[in-house]
Every structure is written in C-alpha cells, then in structure tokens.
Amino acid sequence: MNDVLKKISLIGISPVIALDDAAKAVPLARALEKGGLPAAEITFRTAAAEESIRILTRECPEVLVGAGTVTTPEQADRAIDAGAKFIVTPGFDPELVKHVNSRGVAICPGTETAGEMQQAMALGIDLVKFFPSELNGGIAKLKSLAGPFRTLNWMPTGGVNAKNLAEYMSFDQVAAVGGTWIVKKDLIANEKWDEITALCREAVRIMLGFQILHVGINSRNEEEARKTAGLFAAAFDFPMKENGRESYFAGSAAEIMKYPGMGTNGHIAIGTRDVERAMYHLGRRGIEFDESTIKRDAKGRAFFVYLKGEFGGFAIHLKKI
Q1: Staple 52 to which of 22, 211, 277, 304, CB 3.0 to 4.6 Å?
Q2: Residue of 129, 255, 258, 320 marked catalytic
Q3: Same domain membership, residue 291 and residue 158
C-alpha cells in the first residue's frame, strides 16, 4: 500500500469535509488534529475546495490533506497542484486513476461492484472506496466479497457513523472509513470547533475499542502460581487452566505467572481492534512501546506489544481482539 494510504489506514478515519469558506479551513483542521484525527478529505463540491487545500498544506503540515469527490483529470491536477497528498473519487474511472497515478499521487477510487473492484486491482490499486456503503449492503457485503478479494482493502463511506463504526473497524480488510458524520456543514458554519473535536475523540475511542482483557499477577515460582490460581478458583468458582509453561488462568480475568514476569507486580492486558492503529494513536499521546516485544501475524501485522514503563507497578500490553 502507498505510504500516504498507509497513514490513512493508521489514522483509521478520514473526515470528509465540504468547505464553503476557505478562512475556516485552519481552525477546522486544528479541531480535527486536537481530536485525534489529523486528516482532511476536502471535497471538490464547493468553490472553496482548491484554496482550502492550498491553505491547509501551507498552514497545517501535521494534517494529511487530500481531495475528495474528484471526477475529472482537471480537478485532480488542481487539487494536486494545491498540495493534496491523496485523491478520492466517488466512482470508478480507469482513465482518471491512470492520470493520478502518472502524477505520482495516491488515489482511492470509488467502487460499488465486484467488477469495478476487480478493474481497480488490475490497475495496481489495493485500497478502494466503497460508496455509498450502507445503501450497497454495508459491512455484510464487504465480508461476502472478502473471499475473492483477499488482498483488497476498503474505505467504506456513506452511512458510516458512531453507531456502526465498531462493526466496520472490526473487519481486517477495512483499512479506514470516510467520516462524513464528524464534520457536518452546520458545525463548520457555526464554528463549533470544540464539538467537532469531541466527535473526533468519540470516533477514535469507538474505533480503537480498548478494553481490559485480564490482569497478570507475578509469582516467584510455579508452585506459588498454582496456589494463587487455586485461591481464585475456590473463592469465585473460576475455572482453572494451565497456560503452557508460562502461567495459570483463573477464568479469563486473572493470569497467574509461574515466574516474575513483566512489571513489578505483573501486567494488564488491554484489548484493541487493531494494535498497529492503537500504537499510532497512543504514540500521538506520548506513549512509547518496547518494539522488542512486538508479535506479528503471517501478514506481518502486529497483534501484540508491551508499552514502555509501568502503570502503578504493572506493565501494560496491547493485544488484538
């Protein structure tokens, strides 16, 4: 995947924005960035689009700026010349894809059918927009297409919102979603920047889906671990299960280590829908990771990692759920 599209995938949500006034581009972008979504897809449906992209590219380099609703090579050229780092189209036009590719800029073409997706893949595209998503079957349709299109990634747009976001982001081949619900025109018109920031934070929270999976308790040896696990089992009627050479589990909430493991007292396992995306967003909050602890799946995607440092004497690790 193109580096720019990889960045969109890590951010996870690309806010789709129709700006009527370029003067509002910078405060809007700063509200998005503050809320954890440093990306902006400026649609070419308004006269202010080109100037907005130019201003954002100059004034907000920390925000990944692209152009959406691009339907012609001329629009693509104007957007690229203004500084757009990626192009998103509402439908699939092979000649437009080729033109944007010739400019060396990332493109995410709109698709609706399996035929259009197959044509996009033939042009070397591995991330396509699925639009309008909900009207075309939503996540259920994408899951049905995953079999024949195992190497294709989707950015569903249209009908995605806070209520169904978790379902979309739980599917591995959804690289990102188009966030049309985050930046409504009335919020921009009334300069409700704090409200936009709050909507961004809510979306990031839902997308990452953090939850405590279990608490790990360190022991001096296997005998002590077995005894502690037995106490949990006897007191709370938790089923006790040995977990290889490392630990015992008492139910799913307590892991009793057979040796002094990570953390002074033990560890806390935090589940998330996507470990790499969680690492990106936590990194923006100043969290660092012990890269020597990263575990990856057959596709090279991280599914486990420890944070650096301790929280109240406990090490913290992320795990994909």
Answers
A1: 22
A2: 129
A3: no
**Statement to judge: residues 187 and 228 lie in one domain:** no
- Active-site residue (options: 7, 24, 33, 41): 41
Among the residues of 135-215, which ranges form H helices?
A: 138-145, 165-169, 185-189, 193-208
Residues 162 and 63 both lie in one domain: yes
Whether the full predicted model's pTM is greater than 0.90, yes or no, is yes
Structural domain count of the chain: 2
Q: Is 129 a catalytic residue?
A: yes
Write out the residue range of the structural domain in which residue 21 sits: 3-208
Alpha helices in the chain (DSSP H): 3-11, 25-34, 49-59, 73-82, 94-102, 114-122, 138-145, 165-169, 185-189, 193-208, 222-236, 275-284
Residue 242 is among the residues annotated as catalytic for this protein: no
Q: What is the CATH number of the domain that holds 47?
A: 3.20.20.70
Note down pLDDT in tens along the chain; length 321 residues: 899 999 999 999 999 999 999 999 999 999 999 999 999 999 999 999 999 999 999 999 999 999 999 999 999 999 999 999 999 999 999 999 999 999 999 999 999 999 999 999 999 999 999 999 999 999 999 999 999 999 999 999 999 999 999 999 999 999 999 999 999 999 999 999 999 999 999 999 999 999 999 999 999 999 999 999 999 999 999 999 999 999 999 999 999 999 999 999 999 999 999 999 999 999 999 999 999 999 999 999 999 999 999 999 999 999 999
Beta bridge partners of residue 30, listed in sequence order: none
CATH of residue 272's domain is: 3.10.180.10
